[in-house]
Design goal:
Layout: E1 4-8, H1 13-16, H2 30-42, E2 50-53, H3 57-70, E3 76-78, H4 95-102, H5 104-112, H6 124-144, E4 149-153, H7 155-166, H8 170-174
Parallel strand pairs: 1-4, 2-3, 2-4
Helix pairs in contact: 2-3, 4-5, 6-7
Length: 193
Amino acid sequence: MTSLVLLRHGESTANAGDLFAGHLDVPLTPAGVVEAGAAAEELAGWCPDVVHSSPLVRAAETAAIVGSRLTPDVVVEYQAALVERHYGALQGLRRADARARFGAEAVERWRRSPAGVPPGGESLEMLHERLRPYWREVLLPLLESGRRVLVVAHGNSLRMLLAHVSGLEIREAIGAEVPTAVPLRPAVRLPAR
């Protein structure tokens, strides 16, 4: 039985508007609420012992919907480390507007290069390092003790967590598909102690 499920939040108003959301606290759309319900249906029969969520509302709403349907008395634990990557000057911009303002090549480098840092923002390497203590001190001990954990977060934070969980290089994890509200059951690679 799977002990870890990673779940990106359902469609948010920023997703629907094609915006760089980052740390913006935007809610789910009605379609995102439906997506979260569908994720719960897909996971029916799997009961997490622990539900961790980013505190941003789009993830918190998704965690509440999914967690309550899988384990009615579960308490969602908010983990600040799971917050999405900070997009700096890109945050709140439509993707097309960001490309027009900064150039398509620069925006793509900032988005998909491990060391690419948008002005005032956070690189994927920085996000990976931000997640290291959560992986080693919080999630890993739960998995080693046999607990079933649902982690609800964001596209980039889940990609970088996947790097830790599955022992992937950052570049490999960057290419991982993390669609909204589709449960991912990664291979967990426990480090030698």
